[in-house]
User: What shape does this take?
Amino acid sequence: MSSFTTILALVVMGLVVLVLIRGLFNMLKGTDGNKSNKLMQLRVLLQAIAIALIMLTLWLTGGGR
Assistant: This one.
């Protein structure tokens, strides 16, 4: 189970990076500001999910003890 949560956390962290890059490029192009805002909101949500998965993984593995 802990390896599953580790892999899932890594996938979500990768998604965070992709959404961040896409949001920054959208903002730099100066196109729709609403889309940039939605992408940054999605990034924050994905970061919260990644942190929760990391904490779950640490809890399942005993926190590195």
Remarks:
- The mean pLDDT is 87.
- The longest helix spans residues 33-61.
